[in-house]
Design goal:
Low-confidence stretches: 1-19, 47-51, 365-396
Bound molecules: zinc ion
CATH superfamily of the largest domain: Collagenase (Catalytic Domain)
Strand content: 15-25%
Shape: globular
């Protein structure tokens, strides 16, 4: 792939708008306000297939989506407040934004992002800084100039932008926009410089964001990270004039859209098909947005491979646990999602029951072989992975189990089911089951 040639071409295009801060385009104004939904610059490239990679400014040539490994992107959030304390977001709020990103980019079931396509891209607050020191991935600064999004503050505080997603929270263009990236990576204006970043208005960051509805569910950051990973607005280029891979937003499974949509205009049509108002790359309200598409996911992965090859690190899926009730079983057993390398504690509530002894079985789902009491083999190579401890006689309300989850990346994604067996002198009872995916 002629990567360098394509970057040269992209630089020429980008130099026309050489943006370092937000670009306020009139059509991005939120109706009835002086605020812009997004300050990311618009590109109007010229199709040039000879020197374009598969996800350039000019076109997308997506390979059919195939299951790919999960990539995890380390994030550093630079929380900038003014000397009056405005903008000093809590660690909890910062973490909530990471949670929203994962829900949306992984389309996690039973979350607001469940309706989308799983891009297999995850985000985590960095645990190691560029010098190799432990960190919680959150940096704090009190600087009113920086809070006003003035000055090139990133030059002194950015972490290696090739290896970290740098997110800044401040007034995002002096309060003029909810968020922006200075350029798409394909534009070349900021790629591999300290200016390569995502900037989010502090009051639209996290869930629930301080600014209140309709932009308080963390979707501004989902949208801007979409740009950061190479996506156009769904209304880029309007209805398009030729192939949907070379005009419009350069992907075909987002219906063409004449112009941006605000609010949540269900049923809106502008290019003979329903507008993609649910897409994260439109301008609709946070609660209206529900998805990336398969081709957007392919463009994201193509962008990571071609423009940000050192950003994502391999990783497993997010740990998950789902309670499953069977007829006649007691709904009293719970267990947190099993995170690799940690110890989790499960519990059975025996209030009002006569059972006092219990054990937990972990087994491949569906179970394929019987297993001896108190010990379950789930490893595909028949290596002992989990030994659920036998619980000694216990007469309290809760029975507790601690289980160590090996930090073995080859276990990531393994789905198991667990179920507790309660015992007394005359018999036994089964609890509900909990289905688990081992992950990060
Ligand atoms: Zn945008």
């Amino acid at each position: 792939m002629p990567l360098f040639a394509s970057r040269l071409a992209a630089v020429v295009v980008a130099s026309l708008c050489a943006a370092q801060g937000p670009v306020f385009e009139p059509e991005s104004l939120i109706p009835g306000t002086s605020m812009h939904r997004c300050g990311t610059p618009t590109h109007f490239g010229t199709f040039n297939p000879a020197d374009a990679p598969d996800c350039s400014l000019n076109n997308t040539n997506p390979a059919p989506w195939a299951p790919v490994s999960v990539l995890r992107i380390p994030v550093v959030v630079h929380v900038i407040s003014n000397t009056g304390g405005t903008g000093n977001l809590s660690d909890t709020l910062v973490q909530s934004q990471i949670t929203v990103l994962n829900e949306d980019f992984r389309a996690i079931a039973a979350t607001p992002g469940a309706g989308g396509f799983d891009t297999k891209v995850e985000f985590f607050l960095a645990t190691t800084d560029p010098l190799g020191n432990p960190t919680n991935g959150i940096r704090r600064y009190t600087n009113t100039t920086w809070f006003n999004d003035s000055g090139s503050y990133w030059t002194s505080i950015a972490w290696d932008t090739a290896r970290y997603l740098n997110i800044y929270t401040n007034s995002a263009g002096g309060g003029g926009t909810l968020g922006y990236v200075p350029d798409l990576p394909q534009g070349g204006a900021v790629l591999n410089t300290t200016a390569d970043r995502v900037v989010i208005l502090y009051s639209a960051f996290g869930r629930p964001a301080l600014g209140g509805a309709p932009y308080n569910q963390g979707r501004t950051c989902t949208h801007e990270v979409g740009h950061f990973l190479g996506l156009f607005h769904t209304f880029q280029g309007g209805c398009g004039t030729a192939s949907c891979y070379t005009t419009g937003d350069r992907v075909c499974d987002t219906p063409p859209e004449q112009t941006q949509r605000f609010g949540c205009p269900v049923g809106a049509v502008s290019c003979s098909t329903p507008d993609p108002i649910r897409n994260y790359m439109d301008y609709t309200d946070d609660t209206c947005m529900t998805n990336f598409t398969a081709e957007q996911a392919a463009r994201i992965r193509c962008t990571l491979a071609n423009y940000r090859p050192n950003l994502g690190v391999p990783g497993g899926p997010i740990a998950a646990a789902t309670v499953r009730n069977g007829a006649g079983n007691y709904n009293i057993y719970t267990s947190p999602p099993p995170v690799l390398g940690t110890t989790i504690q499960s519990q059975a509530n025996v209030t009002g029951l006569t059972y006092t002894l219990a054990s937990v079985y972990w087994y491949l789902s569906p179970a394929t072989t019987p297993f001896p009491p108190y010990t379950v083999l789930v490893d595909l190579n028949s290596t002992l992975v989990y030994q659920s401890p036998f619980v000694a006689p216990f007469f309290g309300i809760l029975m507790l189990w601690s289980t160590s989850i090996p930090n073995d990346p080859f276990l990531a994604g393994l789905t198991v089911s667990t179920q507790a067996v309660l015992i007394n002198g005359s018999g036994f009872g089964l609890t509900n089951a909990v289905d688990m995916t081992l992950g990060n």
